[in-house]
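Milestone 3.1: sequence recovery, worked example.
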């Protein structure tokens, strides 16, 4: 590495940048990155690098950030229209993080920005610093004051902190997630004093590390003092009065007044949704240069000025539009004048230079990465020293390839810090991007983007959800209430039934109630208390469940009677193939590959289902199983539901098997009849190892020499006739089915021994969440969004779900973007035409695809990273989730815009749905609801679509329980029942007060988790966790844990009962314990604790009587002694 930097630091361009006398132009981005980093290493100084666009700034940062730590990204949208409505929260977070770092220390840095961010008005740096917080243990700090301060600093309040720029408060705890730290901070109070500060894991919510003090900054740059807010309100009021005089129509006046008043309310609550008010507050004109004094470098002064001109023109146009729509007051000078900045500062400009010794050159075009590795290595210039900048696994592949092919290459392997390769003087640096398909690495958004993750519990209960009570049927849950009965306060689930009848279920009996889960849009019919209709519904569903259980068990019993091929155990070749995977497999992939291979080694035909979301790695699992088959001399058929999918899988398999010598063929309608004839001959002769194709493969003309494995992608998408042919094939060969639709875990458990299932739950590494926005449809905004994606060389899906007007929409977009090719695809077109259009779009022949929901599944187009959905309120959540999954398939940030008609009155259901959809970005509740719908779809795919109606009648959970029991009966196994538990018959007073937590979800979760615990050790651990989460546990909550401890005690072997009487507690042992117990030792132990404790023997059972005190301390001490010494 040092050799490379030393060589670059002698570059004339680097010397020029350092001396501020010369710079360079016409650079490719990696060259620019190298020269910047070299200049910084030669002389560490502050550099502000201004790129013409947000995209170029992000791309330069991608290349600089792996090479040095002292670099920050500071970008914002080029369009104020997009920024006001649909700016990325992650971009905003990155910008705030950068400002905070500039304030915190004076160390030299490179900051990379675009023109819009460089000229943006910012708060006074002194005021920004004043809004940073310092906290330490034993510091006097009022909780409410801190919460208000966090609110003012831009932190959003949640129940639990799970992402940056949020805070939460429970009991004596405040949690804060600052952008400056990898984990959130937990501050615990004792009255008005900070008792402890600690970092905790946002996923488990458990403490990681205790610290003595913490410093953190704001979560926004929209920072206002109360005086500033007052000044803004006064100025806005004056402007509003002037504008109202000019307006003639009362409805226009009312609209403007309503909008301004709403804006002022959000400003007062420190949540200014309208960013335009920064321009009323920041009148002194601070900008980035006030936070970092240093050399300013423009990629091109002309380009920067052009970008500023466009920014200014677009801003004025947008503001005029808002004024005309009566939603804003006029204010047009919204950015610092770039020309004034240029006049006041010495700008270093990149201009053309001709010194060949200073040129850093690009190497292989990226598309060559699709070639076999050996071809690329052979193309390297042998006269230069080669440095491979690769991950360990990739380096091993290159070394192995060189060794096998006896290549004598003067090379060195260095750390994988170069985003892409380059050539300079007598050396070449080669990165993974030049050698491997889809190779990328990025430090981008390391503080703000959390990689996607699967939520463990998607069935959390919320107010107004529907629930199913085992005895009383379907009701609506209204929350948790605390009721007093005979002087005791207890918590109850409040459920309402048809006709307004109410049921209060003690939370100690919560297991009788489960969430009613059905597909979105299914009508819910409440049960009636006192009626036998619910019992009849359960009986009816039970009958159907018995039928399907019998069919499933019979089907797989027949299958088990057939003799299949038992594949041999793995050999060295199998291990080599699996290790050649370019990426680190996820734990789920490793487990699935292992489990499926175990099934293949059995002498019965395998029928395995592999489920996993798009991009979670199902294909790699299938590839490893396919290799096992061909290594054993068997053939593999890979069946795909569409032509485009078959093409994509074919390319993947070709690349993955390139070094194995396997013969691979493709059959779809783009393959000529002449080629198909030859393929059928080769297939029958055994000359083809893997054949990939559409339903054409099911044709009788395709005969195999020795078919060993059938892989089916999305089996549910094939027609009835094709499914029957697949069923015939399943009876004698191993089958692996791939599905992007998840299967409920309870259903998987029920099918153990009936059908084997694997699920991939780990998202791919470096997958960024898709930025999701809801907005009113406006032509100017759509134009901005599409222009932005096209400017970064990307493609756009425009979903318009009305076939009758789809061509009008496409023509309109063609007129707006005459240089872009626009295509149309909808379900009424011929299947062949749709496939050709999709194929052309995938190959980049079209930049915009106007389409209907036919794109919902089965497309993997890496370059399409923007999707616009018109009338988004008309789609279901799970449908939108899958449509949105068409973008964001690689490391590029992807965008999804959900358009609704302007001024449309949305139903409450539609509003909730759109709010949930927006949360998809964070994999929040919208994700959970989508998963709910998809698991129901998955259950339907597996069990048959006719079951959907029966699932809706009783809810998914109860349906799957009934099915599980029925399958057990048909398999001759005992039906699993909930374990009957003894209860300690004690006066129970525990409940969860509002002061401890106001959140019903927290209360229910505590009761549920406590009830599930079955060991003293786990109970103690959970109690510690609750104390970690909420702070000091009050007496009422402590009693809930105490009650569970007593229940666990009475369920131990040897204990018959524990009862509370008026003046005493009575503990009775069973006969077996009484017969074998050391009575003298027991008597002495009790006597040592308290002489008032008595022992008697009645009906061969030892009975201990313990006197009652004010609390249960004596009882607890007695039982703990018995538990430790006698049980």
């Amino acid at each position: 590495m040092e050799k490379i930097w030393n060589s670059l630091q002698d570059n004339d361009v680097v010397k020029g940048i350092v001396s501020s006398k010369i710079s360079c132009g016409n650079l490719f981005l990696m060259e620019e990155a190298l020269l910047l980093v070299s200049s910084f290493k030669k002389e560490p100084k502050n550099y502000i690098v201004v790129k013409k666009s947000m995209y170029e700034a992000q791309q330069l940062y991608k290349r600089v950030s792996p090479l040095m730590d002292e670099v920050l990204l500071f970008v914002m949208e080029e369009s104020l229209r997009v920024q006001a409505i649909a700016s990325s929260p992650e971009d905003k977070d990155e910008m705030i993080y950068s400002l905070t770092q500039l304030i915190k220390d004076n160390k030299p840095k490179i900051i990379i920005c675009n023109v819009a961010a460089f000229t943006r008005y910012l708060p006074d740096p002194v005021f920004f610093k004043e809004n940073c917080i310092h906290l330490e243990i034993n510091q006097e700090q009022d909780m409410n004051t801190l919460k208000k301060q966090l609110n003012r600093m831009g932190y959003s309040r949640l129940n639990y902190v799970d992402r940056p720029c949020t805070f939460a408060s429970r009991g004596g705890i405040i949690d804060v997630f600052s952008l400056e730290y990898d984990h959130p901070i937990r501050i615990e109070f004792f009255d008005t004093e900070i008792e402890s500060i600690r970092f905790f894991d946002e996923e488990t919510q458990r403490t990681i590390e205790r610290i003595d003090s913490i410093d953190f900054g704001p979560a926004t740059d929209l920072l206002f003092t109360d005086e500033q807010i007052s000044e803004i309100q006064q100025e806005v009021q004056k402007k509003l009065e002037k504008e109202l005089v000019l307006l003639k129509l009362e409805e226009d006046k009312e609209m403007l007044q309503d909008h301004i008043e709403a804006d002022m309310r959000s400003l007062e609550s420190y949540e200014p949704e309208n960013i335009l008010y920064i321009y009323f507050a920041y009148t002194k004109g601070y900008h980035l240069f006030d936070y970092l004094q240093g050399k300013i470098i423009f990629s091109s002064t002309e380009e920067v000025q052009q970008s500023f001109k466009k920014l200014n023109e677009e801003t004025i146009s947008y503001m005029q539009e808002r004024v005309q729509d009566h939603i804003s007051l006029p204010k047009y000078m919204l950015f610092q004048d770039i020309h004034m900045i240029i006049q006041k500062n010495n700008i270093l400009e990149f201009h053309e230079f001709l010194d060949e010794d200073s040129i850093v050159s690009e190497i292989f075009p990226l598309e060559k990465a699709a070639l076999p590795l050996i071809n690329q290595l052979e193309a390297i210039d042998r006269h230069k020293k080669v440095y491979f900048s690769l991950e360990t696994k990739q380096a091993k592949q290159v070394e192995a390839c060189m060794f096998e092919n006896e290549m004598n290459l003067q090379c060195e392997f260095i750390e994988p810090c170069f985003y892409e390769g380059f050539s300079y003087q007598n050396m070449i640096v080669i990165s993974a991007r030049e050698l491997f398909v889809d190779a990328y690495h990025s430090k981008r958004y390391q503080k703000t983007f959390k990689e996607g993750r699967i939520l463990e519990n998607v069935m959390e209960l919320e107010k107004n959800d529907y629930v199913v009570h085992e005895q009383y049927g379907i009701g609506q849950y209204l929350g948790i209430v605390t009721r007093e009965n005979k002087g005791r306060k207890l918590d109850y689930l409040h459920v309402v039934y048809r006709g307004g009848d109410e049921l209060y279920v003690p939370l100690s009996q919560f297991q009788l109630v489960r969430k009613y889960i059905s597909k979105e849009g299914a009508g819910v019919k409440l049960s009636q208390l006192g009626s036998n209709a619910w019992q009849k519904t359960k009986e009816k569903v039970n009958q159907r469940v018995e039928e399907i259980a019998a069919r499933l068990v019979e089907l797989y019993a027949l299958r088990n009677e057939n003799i299949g091929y038992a594949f041999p155990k793995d050999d060295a070749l199998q291990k080599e193939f699996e290790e050649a995977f370019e990426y680190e497999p996820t734990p789920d992939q490793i487990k699935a590959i292992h489990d499926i291979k175990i099934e293949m080694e059995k002498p019965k035909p395998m029928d395995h289902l592999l489920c996993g979301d798009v991009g979670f790695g199902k294909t790699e699992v299938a590839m490893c199983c396919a290799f096992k088959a061909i290594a054993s001399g068997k053939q593999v058929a890979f069946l795909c539901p569409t032509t485009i999918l078959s093409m994509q899988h074919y390319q993947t398999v070709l690349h993955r098997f390139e070094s194995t010598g396997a013969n691979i063929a493709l059959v779809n309608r783009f393959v000529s009849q002449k080629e198909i004839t030859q393929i059928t001959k080769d297939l029958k002769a055994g000359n083809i190892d893997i054949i990939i194709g559409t339903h054409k493969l099911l044709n009788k003309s395709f005969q195999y020499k020795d078919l060993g494995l059938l892989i089916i992608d999305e089996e549910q998408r094939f027609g009835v006739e094709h499914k029957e042919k697949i069923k015939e094939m399943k009876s004698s060969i191993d089958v692996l089915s791939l599905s992007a639709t998840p299967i409920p875990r309870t259903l998987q458990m029920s099918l153990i021994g009936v059908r084997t299932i694997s699920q991939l739950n780990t998202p791919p590494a470096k997958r960024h969440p898709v930025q999701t926005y809801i907005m009113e449809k406006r032509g100017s905004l759509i134009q901005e969004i599409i222009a932005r994606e096209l400017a970064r060389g990307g493609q756009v899906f425009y979903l318009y779900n009305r076939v009758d007007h789809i061509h009008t929409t496409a023509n309109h977009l063609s007129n707006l973007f005459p240089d872009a090719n626009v295509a149309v695809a909808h379900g009424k077109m011929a299947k062949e035409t749709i496939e050709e259009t999709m194929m052309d779009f995938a190959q980049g022949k079209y930049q915009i695809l106007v389409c209907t929901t036919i794109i919902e599944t089965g497309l993997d187009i890496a370059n399409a990273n923007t999707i616009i959905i018109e009338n988004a309120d008309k789609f279901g959540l799970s449908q939108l989730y899958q449509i949105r999954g068409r973008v964001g398939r690689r490391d590029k940030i992807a965008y999804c815009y959900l358009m609704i008609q302007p001024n449309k009155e949305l139903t409450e259901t539609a509003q909730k749905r759109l709010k949930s959809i927006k949360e998809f970005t964070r994999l929040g509740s919208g994700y959970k609801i989508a998963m709910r719908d998809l698991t129901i779809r998955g259950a339907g795919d597996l069990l048959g679509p006719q079951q959907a109606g029966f699932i809706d009648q009783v809810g998914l959970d109860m349906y799957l329980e009934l099915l599980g029991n029925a399958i057990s009966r048909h398999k001759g196994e005992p039906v699993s029942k909930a374990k009957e538990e003894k209860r300690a018959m004690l006066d129970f007073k525990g409940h969860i007060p509002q002061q401890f937590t106001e959140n019903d979800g927290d209360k229910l979760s505590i009761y549920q988790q406590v009830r599930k615990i079955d060991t003293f050790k786990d109970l103690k651990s959970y109690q510690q966790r609750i104390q970690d989460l909420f702070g000091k546990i009050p007496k009422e909550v402590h009693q809930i844990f105490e009650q569970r401890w007593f229940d666990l005690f009475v369920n131990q072997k040897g204990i018959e009962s524990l009862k509370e009487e008026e003046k005493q507690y009575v503990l009775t042992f069973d006969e077996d314990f009484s017969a074998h117990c050391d009575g003298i030792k027991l008597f002495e132990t009790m006597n040592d604790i308290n002489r008032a404790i008595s022992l008697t023997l009645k009906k061969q059972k030892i009975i201990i009587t313990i006197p009652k005190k004010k609390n249960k301390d004596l009882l607890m001490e007695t039982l703990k002694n018995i538990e430790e010494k006698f049980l």
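The CA atoms of residues 239 and 399 lie 71 Å apart. Confidence is low (pLDDT under 50) at residues 365-370, 440-459, 922-927.
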